[in-house]
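@channel sequence for tomorrow's demo:
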Amino acid sequence: MRHKQRIAISRLISDLIKSDEVISREEIAAYNKIIRSFDISPEELFEAQQLTFEDAIQFLHYMSREEQQRLYATLSTAAAAGYGCVAKEALLLLAISACLNDKTDKYTLLTTETKGYRTDDKYVIYIESDYMPVINEEIQANYDTIANLLQLWNFEFIYIPKLSQTFRDMDRAYLYDILRYMNPRLSEELLDSLYERLTQFTTESYTRDYLAATSKKDYFYDIEPSLLMNIGVSLLPPATASQRERFCVNMLAIRLENETNSVLKEIHRIIDNYENLISEPEYHRPKRIKGLFRYHGFYKQLFDFLARHHTNGEENSIRIDIPARRIWMHNMEIPMSATQLATYVFILHQTFCTHHCGLIKAGQSRPLTDKEVKRLGETYRAICNLFRDTPVVGERSYMEEVTNIRGYIARVRTLIENLINADDITYYYPKDSLDKSMYHVTIDPMKIHIQDLGKEYLFADYPIWKIINN
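structure tokens (generated this afternoon):
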């Protein structure tokens, strides 16, 4: 068995034991047995702390079928230890089994960093990047049946058109009062705009705009109709003293067939598998909350995302003045040098204007191709020239600049840490991606503005990017 596979097994057993937030003597005994059985070293256990659940599943795809079966049997035994296999453990086992047995790319495990996520939320969400009539017609015709089946097992079915309809059915004055309560600075014009967004939101927009933006996953830009399940949260402790612990939500995407009754078939399959895994099922009588504004879990995250596009305040925003070579974050000027500012804008550009959604760390995750080196070098030089009096054409190669760029990023991080409150720093900080292969910034791109050419632009609409990207 390979080193990476032993690390992956460590990640899975760790998440499984911690999932119900109770660690029994029996679970510790099962844990120790697995460590001995798969000959996992203390160093591999330590490395596993920084591995995401998504990456762990990918590593285990390369195990032999016999090894996968032995692993799943061992994990199932560990889950049943102590108080039996509870709901959160059953969800993890369901996802592990689905992914390891998948031969048709039907199942995809996704991990994304989150903030303020409720670990007890259990959702099944219908997603699609393009409207699929057959499946939507089936959901609309069988919505109550699907929702009731899932709710018996304490899952909530989320269908975005139904959510938009809920907002449309609410008393408009009541909803406006809530929106004013959430943000007292909203003008009447912005209130109308936000109301329209809430009542006209679509599944395609939710998938491409919300999921893709918040997860930083290209996967959601072009996805076939699927069911998305929250299967739990992983905690990644700080790798160094200067870092913070990270909470990562794990999701299982289940691709649907474009055929009649495909949703109902998949819902029954999910429930059957879940029922076979859980030791003591908790049945819940279907209960609907009608006409009231829900502000927790999924609903809170979605509403906050939609509302952020309509606030007229400057908190949690970035403003860049190109001619003045100045930058403001959280309504505060950050004193960066021209090169530091160019490097930070370079990270923003790579995060929001490229398909890989971040600045690739040269040589750390994988070797860069000659084409990538040339492209990155040209882009970095062009952005640096925005902040120079005299543009420079012939300079060192991008690979020669890499060491300097890392130094500039470190100094930018220090400036942000020293000047911005810890609760707000996450929006601006050039973070490492979960697999540490990229730097990226997680602020909403709609909150970044550039002043240049006598106008103000949203970051992605800045006309210079069209020249640089061509």
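heads up for whoever presents: The chain has 17 helices and 13 strands.
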